[in-house]
Amino acid sequence: MLNRPLESCPKCRGLIAPIHSRIGCNNGPCGSVFHSQCAGLTEEQLKLLETTINLSWRCDGCLGSNQNQNQSSLQLSKWLEQSLRQHEKRLEVLEQRSKLNDPGQQVPAILCPYLPNTISRKAISITVAFVLLTTLLGIILATTTNLFGKTLNKHQDNIGGGLILRFVHRQAWLAQPPQKTPPDLTLPVDLVIVLPTNSDNCTTQAQCVLRVRLRQTFDIESLQEDDIAFNFVIGGDGNVYVGRGWDQVGAHMSGYNARSLSFAYIGSFQNQKPSAKQLSVTHLLLQRGLSLGKISPNYRLTGASKLEPSITDYKAEQLYQSFGNWTHWS
User: In terms of Cα–Cα distance, which of 155, 188, 158, 151 is closest to 290?
Assistant: First the structure.
């Protein structure tokens, strides 16, 4: 034990004068001392500590002085476990000697009198568990992020899929500006016309974007229209591509444009039926039009060739037959 005339207690900052009221660290370079009442020891333990010659003890500062502040949490938890084992051994020595002197005396259940009271077995257990859990979560996160990234990249072109109503707006399908703004529709309309685009079908957003963009180019440059002819174009990927939208008059069928909305389906449906995604998203699109007040509750859903049987561009029997059992189909 160190034997200096005056020392300042590092815990209460009070001056320590009498030898019997202080405890010193036996780590030579340290020399820290503090009041015995600040140690949290019983009188019997203090007595044993003073009289036991080879009993090793170091203060809290010396126990942690060799630790690198930048070490990982795992290294810190190992150091805490090692410190705990050392202090438990010291406590066992004190308890054994105390029992030899007074077998009937019960030693207070102090986890470790040489560490601050805030450090306990529970805190160390929580620290170790936290480190292990963090490591495990890191491994899981690294694995699942890679798998999720691959899955997202694989299916990112089919986000809608017909299960939800997802609009692909004009900017997204690279629409060119209209030659002039079409007139406004008188809403709500009581007629919704379905018709084919008479092009190759598509199953991904990338393919459908190309089909819609080519159709707009054809309508403007070949048919001399102001914009893509249709109000909405429904792709085989289950997405709805916005053409002229809810509020503007389309150019899909002469004589009906000003009082109807047009749903054009990407593909040619003489011998091939529309995809389940196209039919599913049609239900959702009609429901949205009703909820927005764009479509009249007693609307009529019909095929273009039913209105103009002589025009071959409207022929798409497999498409029209798919709506045969729909409530508003006419």
Answer: 188
Query: Model-level pTM greater than 0.90?
Result: no
The CA distance from 263 to 301, in Å, is: 10
Cα distance between residue 279 and residue 273, in whole Å? 10
What is residue 329's three-state secondary structure? strand
Q: Taking a C-beta distance cutoff of 8 angstroms, is the pair 20, 51 a contact? A: no
The residues, any chain, with a CB within 8 Å of residue 231's CB and separated by 6 or more, are 243, 244, 245, 246, 248, 250, 252, 261, 262, 263
| pLDDT tens digits, one per residue of 161-207 | 778 999 999 999 999 999 999 999 999 999 999 999 999 999 999 99
**Token digits of residue 93:** 């020595």
Supply 101's token pair.
Answer: 């002197």
45, 94 Cβ separation under 8 angstroms: yes
Please identify which residue in the block is written with the tokens 């893509």: 228
Pairing state between β 33-35 and 22-24: antiparallel
